[in-house]
Amino acid sequence: MDMLSFITDDRSYVDDLNKDEPCLHPDYLVVTALKMMSTDNLSSVAICKNGRYLGRIYANELQRFVDNSEDELVYHRLNFDLETAIAVMRLEQQ
Predict the structure, then answer these.
(1) CA nearest neighbour of 26 among 58, 56, 3, 61
(2) 34 closest CA partner among 3, 71, 80, 87
(3) Is the pLDDT of residue 3 over 70?
(4) Coil, helix or strand at residue 29
């Protein structure tokens, strides 16, 4: 299955962010993103920095990232920042 979540660096941002769209900073933790998506019933959320749209994270992929870890790593993965989580998901997909 192809991964849809992505992030660019802030020098090669995708676009300016729609001001009404909810977003998370790439340094936010996985647990923060999952809580926000669950509370607001979002299937995905933009990743932004300084008003620039850098990427998007999908709830199902983030949940799979946490669920597929070994039992002792679940709490560790919840504390990854979004940028690192996406990088690890990409590596695990290969």
Answers:
(1) 56
(2) 80
(3) yes
(4) strand
pTM equals 0.83
Measured distance between the N- and C-terminal CA atoms of the chain, rounded to whole angstroms: 11
Query: pLDDT digits over 26-81, tens only?
Result: 999 999 999 999 999 999 999 988 878 889 999 999 999 888 776 667 778 899 99
- Would you state the structure tokens that stand for residue 70, as one six-digit string? 């070994």
C-alpha to C-alpha distance for 15 and 54, rounded to whole angstroms: 7
- Asked whether residue 94 is domain-assigned, the answer is no
What φ, ψ does residue 31 adopt, rounded to 5°? -60, -35
Is residue 68 domain-resident? yes
CATH code, 84: 3.10.580.10
